[in-house]
Specification:
Largest sheet: 8 strands, mixed
Domain Glycosyl transferase family: 242-404
CATH superfamily of the largest domain: Glycogen Phosphorylase B
Structural class: alpha/beta
Domain Glycosyltransferase subfamily 4-like N-terminal: 115-238
CATH class of the largest domain: Alpha Beta
InterPro entries: Glyco_trans_1, Glyco_trans_4-like_N, Glycosyltransferase_grp1
Number of domains: 2
Number of helices: 16
Pfam family, one: Glycos_transf_1
Protein name: 4-alpha-glucanotransferase
CATH architecture of the largest domain: 3-Layer(aba) Sandwich
Order of helices and strands: EHEEHEHHHEHEHHEHEEHEHEHEHEEHHH
Strand content: 5-15%
Shape: globular
């Protein structure tokens, strides 16, 4: 089976959890015999092949004619440019008018109406820098796909949905829309109407939707009006780079870690409030905020105004190796996200032997047992838990060991088998509903 994977992230191109989720899933699928052709938003017109687990670690970049690309650093799209609407039509229209004939079509897949394609074309011509990158990605996907073969299209999150819909329209292939997060999560509300519309079109006109949690499925049902049977829940797994975890003890005090993008969705201001209340008791502890985002400067100023600036360490953006070092340094990881589709950080924290406090408003809380699950707004409860763990180190050590043992079962093997089953059902029956 050949799958065309559309994703905006893959190691080493990582912005958030999407890249690591795709890595784990793609590697596990390749072990099951799935042949993957992956498209990333690189300036070079290349695709990446993953035919076995080794190639998942070192995917081979190939030009559109199939020739391997000489080793060279690839670049993400980096344009600030407004493209006229008529140029979008001019670039994409020829592809739509040269639809290849379908031969031996066994099942009927959901049709993408012409008005949807026209609406997407209108959206991608709005002059927004990010939307222009989405247009370039869509254009590149169409061009490269003309010279390759695949059985179905698997698109990961809204940035790749336009490309998925265009390819579905052109090649009459089934489309799976993988929902790792929604605009409602990112913005803690309706967010940007254009992104909301792209998500709506991608989810509505795909043949199957994969949600990373029941929490995310609920959001899709509430806001996108999808039939429940169309959405299949496949929880994320975890792939550890380091096989042997070595805890690092650099401070006498316990280290309490926040790890993630510094956006309202992740709850970093809640973490600051927790830190202030813990420190106000006179307890000695180190608080670390690891990650980057638009709230970084605001959080630094807020920590200073709270009088706890000297007790909070801001790391900025971390590489994958630095993330693992931060997790090795920590004793307690707090994930106070108001809205978290899944939260792979939770599994990473457990693997690196951390006591975990996670919000109930997160997908990972659906499958984890050995962690404290608290409503994101219940700061006092989280403070109470932290103080209890610090005052009872043997209790914290026991929880850390249980978490490390539990996370071993959250491999990508199970999720990959579920996804492969959805592929097979979709190709055979035209839908993924059971």
């Amino acid at each position: 089976m050949k799958v065309l994977m559309l994703t905006w992230e893959y190691p080493p191109f990582i912005v958030g959890g999407l890249g690591m989720a795709c890595y784990g899933l793609f590697k596990a699928l390749s072990e099951l015999g799935v042949r993957i052709k992956m498209l990333l938003p690189t300036e070079e017109e290349v695709f990446f092949e993953i035919n076995n687990p080794y190639e998942a670690d070192f995917p081979l970049a190939k030009r559109e004619n199939g020739e391997p690309l000489s080793p060279a650093p690839l670049k993400f799209f980096n344009f600030l440019y407004k493209i006229p609407e008529e140029s979008v039509y001019a670039e994409l229209k020829p592809f739509l008018e040269s639809v290849p004939p379908e031969i031996h079509k066994k099942v009927e897949f959901k049709e993408v109406p012409e008005e949807v394609i026209q609406r997407l074309t209108k959206i991608l011509s709005q002059g927004n820098s990010l939307l222009y990158k989405v247009f370039l990605y869509t254009q590149k996907a169409i061009k490269i796909s003309q010279k390759t073969s695949f059985d179905l299209i698997h698109a990961h999150d809204w940035l790749t949905y336009p490309a998925g819909l265009f390819l579905k329209k052109i090649f009459k292939k089934p489309l799976i829309a993988h929902l790792h997060a929604t605009e409602f999560d990112r913005a803690l509300g309706f967010g940007h109407p254009v992104i909301h519309e792209i998500e709506y079109l991608g989810l509505t006109y795909s043949d199957c939707v994969i949600a990373v949690s029941n929490y995310t499925k609920g959001i899709a049902l509430e806001h996108y009006y999808l039939p429940s049977e169309k959405i299949q829940v496949v929880h994320n797994g975890f792939t550890a780079k380091e096989k042997i975890v070595k805890k690092i003890k650099k401070f006498k005090e316990p280290v309490i870690l926040f790890l993630g993008r510094l956006t309202p969705q992740k709850g970093p201001t809640i973490f600051l409030e927790i830190a202030k209340k813990v420190l106000s008791t006179g307890i000695k502890a180190r608080f670390v905020i690891a990650g980057a985002g638009e709230m970084e400067r605001e959080l630094m100023l807020e920590a200073g105004s709270m009088g706890i600036g000297t007790h909070i360490m801001f790391t900025g953006f971390l590489t994958r190796e630095e993330v693992e070092k931060a997790l090795s340094l920590a004793d307690i990881v707090v994930m106070p996200s108001p809205s978290e589709p899944f939260g792979i950080v939770a599994l990473e924290a457990m693997y690196f032997e951390n006591a975990l406090i996670i919000s109930k408003q997160s997908g990972a809380s659906e499958i984890i047992e050995n962690a404290y699950k608290v409503d994101f707004w219940d700061v006092d409860k989280m403070v109470e838990i932290i103080l209890d763990l610090i005052h009872h180190p043997e209790k914290m050590k026991s929880l850390q060991k249980k978490a490390k043992a539990e996370v071993q079962k959250f491999t990508w093997d199970g999720p990959a088998k579920k996804v492969l089953s959805l592929y097979q059902r979709l190709l055979k029956e035209g839908s993924c509903s059971s």
